[in-house]
Structure formats: C-alpha cells, structure tokens
Amino acid sequence: MAGRTGRRGREARLESNANPVDETxxxxxxxxxxxxxxxxxxxxxxxxxxxxxxLETLGLSQASASMIDLVCAEGGTYTGDKxxxxxxxxxxxxxxxxRRDVVLYGQDKANDLNLSGSRVHMSSGxxxxxxxxxxxxxxxxxxxxxxxxxARICDAMENIHHFSRSIVARDIENVAEMDLNTxxxxxxxxxxxxxxxxxxxxxxxxxxxLCYALAGSEAAFRARPFLTVMVCHVVPPMRFxxxxxxxxxxxxxxxxxxxxxxxxxxxxxxxxxxxxxxxxAVAETLAGLVFARLVDPNVAAxxxxxxxxxxxxxxxMCAGGGEQAILMAAAAQMGRYYDLPTTSIAGITDSKTLxxxxxxxxxxxxxxxxxxxxxxxxxxxGMQASLLGVSLEAYVVDNDMLGNILRTVRGVEVNVENIGAxxxxxxxxxxxxxxxxxxxFNRMKSxxxxxHLGDRQTxxxxxxxGSRPIGDVAKDKARxxxxxxxxxxxxxxxxxxxxxxxxxxxxxxxxxRN
Length: 514
Hints:
By secondary structure, the chain is of the alpha/beta class. It has 2 domains: 41-95, no CATH class; 99-410, Alpha-Beta Barrel (TIM Barrel). It contains 19 helices and 20 strands. It has helices at 2-16, 41-57, 65-73, 88-97, 144-156, 175-189, 204-215, 218-223, 242-253, 274-295, 322-338, 356-371, 392-410, 416-419, 421-428, 438-443, 459-464, 470-484, 492-501; strands spanning 31-32, 60-61, 77-78, 83-85, 103-104, 113-114, 119-122, 130-132, 139-141, 163-164, 194-197, 227-231, 258-262, 265-266, 301-305, 308-309, 343-345, 376-378, 383-384, 389-391. A 5-stranded parallel sheet has the order 10-11-12-13-15. β12 (227-231), α9 and β13 form a beta-alpha-beta unit. It is globular, with a radius of gyration of 24 Å.
C-alpha cells in the first residue's frame, strides 16, 4: 500500500510542476532507419552483380509487346526462346535516374509520407479473403463493409501511416465493380494515402475517373495523387505477368504512383536459399522499374522486392519465421543501397489469434525491416493466418507494437541537453531522485512512448479489473471506434457526386451518413 501511495504522490508532483512540457511526440512516421545491415558491403556487391548478370544473360519471359519494343529500343535483346534481356547499362541508368523524391500524398496534407532516404512508415496490407469476426472470432468471408471498417480503424491509429487494401470484398461478384468499390471504401474510410491492386487492366480507367472526380480534376490528382496502384508484374521465377504489365503501363500513364512487387516463395517459385531468393526478387523488381521508367521517366515508382518463405516440409507459406524477417531486412538493405523508395512485406504471422506467437512473429519481422530502413512496411498490422485473415481488433493492438518499434528506430539522441550533466549534479546535491524534477517533467511526453492498450498495472489491479487479455480490451476499443469514428474528409456533396457517376455498393447508412 505504501508503494502505491508513494507512486500517486510522485504522479501528483509531476502533474503540479509548473514547468512546460515538451509536446513533441515520442515517435512519428518518417523516422530514419538503416542501422541494421545484415548484408556486408561485400555481400551487397555480390548480390548486385548477380542481379545485373541475371538480367543481361537470362532476362525474363512473357514480356508484353509494348515492353519488348521499349526495352529493345534502349539496347535490349529479345531472344529466340522468347526471353527479354536487359543490358547492364540500361539497368544502371534506370537506377541512377529513378526518382528519389517520391511523396505518397494523403487526402489530408497532414498525412503526406516522404519516402526519400531511409525514412520509415508503417502500413496495413494483405488482400486477405477473410475476416476474423469481431463478435464471435470465427473466420468468414470479407465484405466491402469490412474493408471500409478496416480503413476507419487504421485512420484512427497514429502509428499506422498508410492504408493498403487489406481485405478482398468477396460480396461483390463483378470484378470491375469490386475494384472500383475497393478504392471507394478505402478512400472514404481514411484520409491517409491508399494503395490498391487492380484485377484487370480494363478496370484501371474507371479507377482513374473515380480518383480524378474525388480530387476535383485530373490535373489536381496528378499534382497530388492520393492512391497508389500495386502491381505484381512478375510470376516468378523470372517471368512477367502480361496482363499486369498492361495494368502497370495504364497506371503510369494515368498518373498513379506504382508499387513494383515481386513476391516469389522461397523453395517454390524462388530459390530455397535466402541469398538466391533475394537476388531473384531484386532482379524481377528492377525489370519492372526499367519498364515503368520507359513508359514515363517521371513515374513515382516504389521498389518492392517482397520475397516470401515456404515451410519446405509442406510447401505452404510460413512468413512468421526468422527466415522471413532476415530476408525482408536484406531486401530493404538493397533498396537503401540503390537509394530507391522501397516497400517491404513484414508482420505476416502464421498465428490465428492474438497470442504469444502472433506478437513475437510480428515484432521480429517489422522491427527487422524498420531498422534496415524500409520506407513503407506493408502487412505490418492486422494480418493473421499467413495473410488469410484480417482482425480488426489486431489493428488496435498492433498500433501499440508499431509505436514501440518506431521508438527503437528513433534510437538514442546523444547531446549535452539529453545527457543532462547539470541535472545529475543538481539532483545528487538535492532530493536524490529525478521524480518530479523539471527535466523529467519536460521530457516525459517527448521521450517516452506510452501504449494505449499495453497493460502496465500491478497483478492485483489487473485482477480487480477482470483479468482481461489484451485481445478483449482491443475488441472493446475496435467496437468503440466503429461506432464513433466516421472520417469526414470527403464532403456530403462530393459523395453524392460519386454515387451519381459510379455504382457504389456501400449505402449512405453504411458509411455513417443519412
């Protein structure tokens, strides 16, 4: 009892201290990573050489006619066995001239993300077919309502900086309408930058029309594009996906930023070794970057080698292990070597629920990618069951995890003020402790990240409040947000305009408007 009374007394002294508090947040999007370097300088050179050699001697098959024409005009070769070879100087020129100033704009300017350098941002992601129901915890097919709800929750989470389409709206059978309504649900649910994929290249035009209408004009969208098109332009190993290339070309011409993604699976569609899987993914991604820049040299392109890991005993994806974490960190390190805006996939857990496996697998992978300097870490929150399901309450739990990870990325700032030698001397000659001291009070908010849900009570206090696991607490918070958080960045008039032009499946009542 005396200990608890003492703590309350110390808290009271802190609260009554008249000195101003530094209101700088303890973490923020865009902290600089890059300190973790699993590849040595010699390793990087070896990987880079292997990548360039593969591209110029093996190349990729199944290139589109447009890509063949563009690459061959720049010195490439289309071989008799129908493989497109990329000359070394073209690849090196592409890397050297690619944009480093990519900004992912939010509908709200406060949510703009600068992807230059080693700045780190956290994102949802997944494209899962299912949702773990907030009421009964059972797996069910995802809906467009679930997608909108996921966007709303992520909109309210300060450590989730970007919303990547996380749920497939399986209640919309028409593919074109599904693509359109996926974008609508995401853009309506959050003012943060949104990334979506497009099922068929023919659906890109309608998506562009939606974005132009929402921005007010095509020129306005091109000036501040708030939606990225994610393109898996390859079907590993070393083959292009022809329809995806058409989608990529259309997206670039329409003014969208693009994510260029290679997602081979080690031991299945890429080599079983970490190094081999890394080399193939980097080569495949750079081939996409060459094409995107030949379509438009000013394209806002994001380098996305996202190789995955398989359990070689079964062949199924197992992205929660140490192999996946180190592979993603190495891929991010290659992005830093090329100094390209880079996205990584991390945070995929094989766990089906919010348990110890869930937390350990996510934290390991996201921390590794963040410290390696990945600019945009997708799948960092909400995903479960090897990307097969999304948990809305997990977004709330993961927000705390991401805040703590970002605090480690921020690191230790060593300077005269932070060391506080004068403060140490003053305390040692005075009260003998730092509790209640102006230095402590001034820095308690700027230097420390306080979790929203993470439990720091004593066991007795925790038991008195029902001994609730964090998942139950998170469910309550998720329900509260779904009942109250309806972003208003899109006006009533603009929403009505969109509904008159496009077939929107979400009703006005479903988005919280009458």
